[in-house]
Design a protein that fits this description.
Radius of gyration: 17 Å
Strand content: 5-15%
Number of helices: 10
Largest sheet: 6 strands, parallel
Helix content: 40-55%
Order of helices and strands: EEHHHHEHEHEHEHEHEH
Shape: globular
Length: about 220
């Protein structure tokens, strides 16, 4: 009986929260918004991302405003992401699970054409049976992407599949796709906001794997 893990990338395996905050504030400066602290970001951040801007601005951005906001953030983010590293222990955990015959895959809202080179650059691409990034607009959540990702996997039992991510949206996507989830506090959300999702919340990736194994037992 083997547990299949579906990993998130940004804020989970990839410890890029500092790059995210710096890019957010750089884009905020362009947009005329005040800077935000890490603590405040984790309190307010949500997916779909336009809802995050609604919490900041008091209204949803128009489609035209969203295009400007999205472009500004990613322009600053991709420069800073080059200096970010994998989360502590991530490479070792992935390697150990693969060597033990366990399967794992990667499903991210990062653009697919940019996700693949990043994963390869960090030397972990071979640990996954499938890697899927976002294809299409950036203003939605992960639910439909998760359904498509799981549907493309062969021989994987949904009853023994667990999503590990850093956002409430990861738990929402897991529920939508009929699998379980564990949420990790090292990324985009505060612990209190993650706990509202009603799934296990942990402070390290090693704890996340252990919790996932318990869920799937």
């Amino acid at each position: 009986m083997r547990t299949h893990l579906v990993w998130d990338w940004n804020g989970t395996l990839f410890h890029d929260i500092q790059a995210v905050i710096e890019a957010t504030n750089a884009s905020f400066t362009e947009l005329g918004l005040p800077p935000i602290t890490l603590e405040r970001y984790r309190e307010l951040y949500c997916v779909p991302v336009p809802k995050f801007y609604e919490r900041l601005m008091g209204r949803l951005p128009t489609p035209e405003e969203w295009e400007v906001m999205d472009e500004a953030f990613h322009r600053h983010y991709w420069v800073r992401a080059e200096a970010a590293a994998l989360a502590e222990g991530a490479a070792e955990l992935l390697s150990q699970r693969r060597d033990a015959g366990q399967t794992q895959s990667l499903c991210s809202l990062a653009p697919h054409e940019q996700l693949l080179p990043m994963v390869r650059a960090h030397g972990i691409a071979d640990h996954f049976v499938r890697i899927d990034g976002r294809i299409g607009p950036s203003n939605g959540g992960k639910a439909t992407h998760m359904v498509r990702h799981l549907g493309a996997l062969k021989g994987i039992d949904p009853a023994r599949t667990v999503v590990i991510g850093d956002a409430v949206d990861d738990a929402t996507a897991a529920l939508h796709a009929g699998v379980r989830a564990v949420l990790y506090t090292g990324g985009s959300h505060s612990r209190s906001s993650l706990e509202a999702a009603g799934v296990p919340v942990v402070d390290s990736l090693a704890e996340a794997v252990a919790a996932a194994e318990e869920l799937a037992a």
